[in-house]
Amino acid sequence: MKSDVIQQAESADLQRVGPVSFAVSDPQLACRRILDLVQEGQGRHVHLANAYTIALADKSAEYRQVLARPAVNFPDGKPIGWVSRLKRHSPRLRQVRGPQLFLDVFDQGRSSGVRHYLLGSTPDVLSQLERRLRELHPGVEIVGTESPHFRPLSKTEYAEQDDRIRHSGADIVWVGLGTPKQDFEAMRLAESLPVVAIAIGAAFDFAAGTLREAPRWMTTLGLEWSYRLIREPKRLWRRYLFGNARFLKAAIFAPTRLE
Predict the structure, then answer these.
(1) 3-state SS class at 72
(2) At a CB cut-off of 8 Å and minimum separation 6, what does 243 contact?
(3) I need a surface site. Which of 79, 137, 149, 254 has the fewest CB within 10 A?
(4) Quick check: is 49 in a domain?
(5) How far apart are the C-alpha atoms of 40 and 245, rounded to whole Å?
(6) Residue 70 to residues 37, 44, 74, 156, 190, Cα–Cα distance (Å)
(7) Cα distance between residue 190 and residue 78, in whole Å
């Protein structure tokens, strides 16, 4: 039987920005919804989507399908909230920052014994991340960590990885493989295993302390992307130059009707 929080969340309005439909939520409700999805014991995939996500979804029909229902999408970016206000959504979308949601679920999941699996990044980052999470949240249950190959995995490798996750007893698999790879993997895991798979982006590096977050004032003003661009210009300039332009086109000129 579904919990009251899940019934409320699934019956609540969805708001569309570009080709992506977002759950109307807030940081606290998003955390509670994830924990209630765990209690359901069924595979679900969750995505923290930003302007770059929308730009990619506007370009790729395959990626749009990943983010289509029954995916749960939260708006991880101020610009999505700005567009929601511009389009006069009611209720309006509010930002749910992935790095904070990551920590909130670890914190609040302790009381119900939620078991976590960390998939992605490098062995060094995962080691620092696990140590940091155990320091911040004593008693947290981390039942596995895995740094997969950067190349595409074979069917056998996927099957072996799934067996490790299944045998760990994980309730949530946090997927930090970069956008859009992590979104495809979160969907695959949710369909293959009875886990809540969450595509979480750079939260691993932020929580581990291997990547510095933008100052709070920049986050508040929606300038986090510019901070990351300054720190990693060679890797990110194409994403933000072309991605932001495509986001604006998709978000502002796309129809608002939900499909």
Answers:
(1) strand
(2) 51, 52, 55, 56
(3) 149
(4) yes
(5) 39
(6) 12, 8, 13, 27, 11
(7) 28
| Banded pLDDT at 223 (limits 50, 70, 90) | confident
DSSP lists the bridge partners of residue 145 as 118
Q: Looking at the 3D structure of the chain, how many domains does it have? A: 1
Determine the Cα–Cα distance for residues 127 and 252; give it in Å rounded to an integer: 42
* Helix (H) or strand (E) segment spanning residue 73: strand 72-75
Q: How far apart are CA 258 and CA 186, in angstroms?
A: 23
Residue 85 lies in a domain: yes
> Is residue 253 a part of any domain in this protein?
no
Token digits for 159? 């099957």
From first CA to last CA, the distance across the chain in angstroms is: 27
Q: What integer is the mean pLDDT of 176-187?
A: 96
206: tokens are: 């932020």
Could you read off the pLDDT of 225-242 as tens digits, one per residue?
777 777 777 777 677 666
> Could you tell me which residue, 254 or 232, shows the higher pLDDT?
232
In a domain, 2, yes or no: no
Token pair for residue 236? 């990110």
Q: What is the pLDDT of residues 64-84, one digit of tens each?
A: 999 998 999 999 988 899 999
Residues 6 or more apart whose CB falls under 8 angstroms from that of 15 comprise 21, 22, 24, 84, 89, 91, 92, 93
User: Who's near 183: CB < 8 A, 6+ residues apart?
Assistant: 45, 47, 53, 63, 66, 67, 199
Tokens 């919804």 — which residue?
33
Residue 121, SS3 per DSSP? coil
Half-sphere exposure of 83 (CA within 13 A, CB side): 28
Residue 154 is part of which domain span? 14-213
CA-nearest of 16, 10, 116, 113 to 57 is 16
* Calpha distance 172→37 (Å, rounded): 10
